[in-house]
Amino acid sequence: PTNTTTTFDDLPDTGYLRQAQLIPNVIPISSATLWRKCKAGEFPKPRKLSLRVTAWNVGEVRAWLKSQSGV
Strand 16-18 vs strand 47-50: parallel, antiparallel, or unpaired? Predict the structure, then answer.
């Protein structure tokens, strides 16, 4: 059996992550905290990909994670 699960590290910077993929696997915070940080400009704003699909750009999330780690 082949594992078809894609990890965050395997995604291209141009890819997108939905909230369920982001929390808690990539960002260990609650949904409410994620949206609060987005509204305050402390986390990259998501993109509306369609009427009912909102997602975050992988490259922007990586840049945010790097800025948080002080690297």
Answer: unpaired
Q: What is the pLDDT of residue 65?
A: 95
Three-class SS state of 70: coil
| Angular region, 5: left φ>0, alpha ψ -120 to 50, beta rest | beta
Show the DSSP H helices in the chain as ranges: 19-22, 31-40, 58-69
Instruction: List pLDDT tens digits, range 18-48.
Output: 999 999 989 999 999 999 999 999 999 999 9
Q: How far apart are CA 16 and CA 46, in angstroms?
A: 9
Phi, psi of 37 (to 5 degrees): -65, -35
Rama region for 41: left / alpha / beta (φ>0; ψ in -120 to 50; rest): left
**From the CA atom positions of the chain, what is the Rg in Å?**
13
